[in-house]
Amino acid sequence: MARAKSQFVCQNCGAVTARWTGRCESCGEWNTIVEEAVASGIGAGPGAASGGGRPAELVLLTGVTDDARRVATGIGELDRVTGGGFVAASTVLIGGDPGIGKSTLLLQAAAAFAASGLRTVYISGEEAIAQIRLRAERLGVVDAAVELLAETHVETILATLEAGPRPDFVVVDSIQTLWTDRVESAPGTVTQVRTSAQALTRFAKRTGAAVVLIGHVTKEGQIAGPRVVEHMVDAVLYFEGDGGHQFRILRAVKNRYGATDEIGVFEMAAAGLVPVANPSALFLGQRDAAAAGSAVFAGIEGTRPLLVEIQALVAPSPLGTPRRAVVGWDSGRLSMVLAVLETHCGVRIGANDIYLNVAGGLSISEPAADLPVAAALVSSLSEAPLPADTVYFGEVSLSGGVRPVSGAPARLREAAKLGFSSAVTARRDGGEPMADIEVTEFSTLAELVARIAAKGRRSA
Question: 420 and 389 in contact (C-beta within 8 Å)?
């Protein structure tokens, strides 16, 4: 009898090697290489036994699109992130840290679908039926006509779904717990996750059901399993937040049926996740406007303008190498802003400990945050509180200039709506008219630094 061939697959990135090694050469992780049979490994084909393919029918681009209907859940922030609701025959992958609220939100969504008369199935591979019912009682949705199944075997799940009427909405919690007879790997391995997701995606496309897969995340914050799973599904959503804040951010990083980088804001309450209709007011609700080192950033997340407080603390360092601590922003971007302040603005800040925080637990990546970060740093260093009724936005260039950013009218309208009377941004040449708010424009960062430092108790 011939010896079965095997190969070695990294359980972190899915890379395939011919021999076992302690460290994956692709992703650099240690002890993630697992031996698997070649017939079930990454890139394995369906086998020669399947025979040749049959001709398929070709259709024109024009036609009826009723099969791609979109169904809203009624949960405003969830519908915003998905682009107006879940699309029939689509597969959505939702990832997040343990305990962040993924199962809670999707049980609420399942109850909303069931209340509208759609057949809804909630499949759990991590909880027993009694545990799901206990959570439903806490959320106040125990009377919803949601069908429950506690199962991890993919073939059993598909047979159960196909035995009755076609389901409209299916939740699978979580994809890492499923296993299939088609491969010989252990549950949770790269091959099992990929093959299970592939089978559920085929079921969604064939039957027209909207399938939502819950996924665990790694310590780096990425959804566990091969990246091919993210390419396979129609939308990828990430749940962000931490235990120290009651806010939860649902962010779309991929969406074939809507905008990407859209966010939804939720507040964790005793009765579950509550959508926040005005997150700007919530993020700024406990702001200490009189403190130095606080600047309000007028940002845009997806299509939504959002105001958030940026806090900076600059303190003398007793160490030879000063500390740099950043929460909610890119540390590399902070280093760039510090270098511009030192080189082009004459601000002696590099020898201090610097702490930067985006209040409320929100993570931002917009270059438009450069200007409020610089303003907050200079304000803390010179002990000069910034005006409480002013917002800041603008990109700082390496030459010390301030560059305009897109969406300025929307940012200003949001600021005016929340009671802010002035804004500081880059100098523009024409463009859309600004909102009914006083706008101060700068072409270089040094101009803004000089204005802030002139009002300070310490020299910058």
Answer: yes
Cis amide bond preceding 174, omega within 30: yes
Cα(392)–Cα(412) distance, rounded to whole angstroms?
10
In the block, tokens 């790997």 appear at 185
258, 277, 296: which is the final residue of a domain? 277
- The predicted pLDDT at position 42 comes to 46
For the cut 50, the answer to whether the pLDDT of residue 382 exceeds it is yes
- Domain holding 13, by residue range, is 1-39
199 and 301, same domain (yes or no): no
**What pLDDT is attached to residue 430?**
64
Separation between Cα atoms, residue 162 and residue 3, nearest integer Å: 38
Residue 35's pLDDT is: 81
For residue 209, give Cα distances in angstroms to 90, 112, 165. 7, 16, 11
The answer for residues whose C-beta is within 8 angstroms of residue 42's C-beta and 6 or more apart is 9, 14, 16, 190, 191, 194, 226
| Residue 334 CB contacts under 8 Å (≥ 6 apart), including other chains | 324, 326, 354, 356, 373
pLDDT in tens, 246-272: 788 899 999 998 888 788 999 888 888
CA distance 413 to 415: 5
SS3 call for 104:
helix
287 with 360, same domain: the answer is yes
Number of domains in the chain: 3
Q: Do 202 and 349 belong together in one domain?
A: no
| Residue 225: other Cβ atoms inside 10 A | 28
Instruction: Give domain status of residue 61, yes or no.
Output: no
pLDDT at 128: 94
102: in domain:
yes
Tokens coding 125: 């591979």
Residues of the chain with pLDDT > 90, as a percent, come to 55
